[in-house]
Specification:
Helix content is 0%, strand content 58%. It is built from no helices and eleven strands.
Length: 121
Amino acid sequence: QVQLVESGGGWVQAGGSLRLSCAASGSIFRINDMGWYRQAPGKQRELVAVITSVDNTNYADSVKGRFTISRDNAKNTVYLRMNSLKPADTAVYYCNALVQTTFLSLERNYWGKGTLVTVSS
């Protein structure tokens, strides 16, 4: 089917920056919306940012002005540039994509396994 693989997570001091990447592969006819979610320990998974196939974007209020989502359709890849990181941004970040696998298929949500971002004070 479809696989999403995240990369770019790691450790950074408060105020620093990281760029996450997520590459989709497998049976892909068309990718529509793509997005990033995150989950901190003991908390529910929450939406961070989404981007449509025509590059319209939406962000959670907590990351507006600091994070930037983008995509490269030729590479089936979505990115998340994170600037001015705060300890509250510490979480596992998950990639999500709405994918149509064939012309006759309905869209389905696919998830990556996540990449850990740790921000220290």
